[in-house]
Amino acid sequence: MKVATAAYPLDFFESWAGYEDKIFRWVDEAASHGADLLVFPEYAAMELSSLAGADVAKEVETSFHAVSDRMAESNALHAHLASQFDVHILSGSGPVFDKGDRPVNRAHFFAPNGKVEHQDKQILTRCERTPWDMVPGGPLKVFETSLGKIGVLICYDSEFPLLGRALSECDVILVPSCTEALSGYWRVRIGAMSRAMEAQCVTVMASLVGPAEWSEAVDINTGMGGVFGPPDIGFPETGVLAEGSLNQPGWTYADVDLDAVAHVRADGGVLHRSHWPEQSPRDSEVTYLSMK
């Protein structure tokens, strides 16, 4: 398959037509380059809050409700485009209120056959806990698609090895991210590359980029698109299949060979995925020795 991963800037919209036109243009461009799988970043849906006006979009709480209120319309648009262009799409995540009075951070996944699923963020960052008061969502999922088995680790989730291990049956793990600082970008990138090494799979990282001064929640964004694999047989020695340019909007493309994933898992130079269980019980049998 060919994957397209976005370095995506947020825009302020005066009308739904403006948002619709932007998403259409992005999907059209990726599809015209032969992409089969399109990945938008974490919190890309926050631009939906602009449709409720500047005062609503500025404040975190009111903007969250505004995004959630528009999510059904956004989903309908993405589902239509997935079918129209015969592509799979992970749309930009955003707050969704469906667990009581507090939101989850949810990304929706669209297949060209009309099927729609979602993945919620598992482990929240400090700001998502306080002051945003978000809640963790539902369980991790493996999406069995015509392209292969696909999982999603939303931003911070990619930094936790056991979540990656839970998705180790996946051929591809998508990592939509939103990071304010360069250090945050690299934390997620290192996580994405580590998960690719451990599970001997491909990870696809998308990033929000650029300023959005009209939003308190996502006012500064740093990152770029990237596609990573295990630095082993059938993959680049760096593990980097493709990467964009820092803070430059646009798609980054990479060809992903699932036969290469299967081969490196069966007969790679190292076998992290198969040898993972050998960590236990060694990981709980640490001996402390005084050298004072």
TrEMBL record:
SUPFAM superfamilies from the UniProt entry: Carbon-nitrogen hydrolase
Domain CN hydrolase: 1-258
E.C. designation(s): 3.5.1.100
Signal peptide: none
EC class: hydrolase
GO MF annotations in UniProt: hydrolase activity, acting on carbon-nitrogen (but not peptide) bonds, in linear amides
InterPro entries: Aliph_Amidase/BUP, C-N_Hydrolase, C-N_Hydrolase_sf
A Pfam entry, by short name: CN_hydrolase
Domain of life: Bacteria
Keywords for the protein's UniProt record, in alphabetical order: Hydrolase
Cited PROSITE patterns: CN_HYDROLASE (PS50263)
Alphabetical list of PANTHER family matching this protein: CARBON-NITROGEN FAMILY, PUTATIVE (AFU_ORTHOLOGUE AFUA_5G02350)-RELATED, NITRILASE C965.09-RELATED
Descriptive protein name: (R)-stereoselective amidase
Organism: Shimia thalassica
Lineage: Bacteria, Pseudomonadati, Pseudomonadota, Alphaproteobacteria, Rhodobacterales
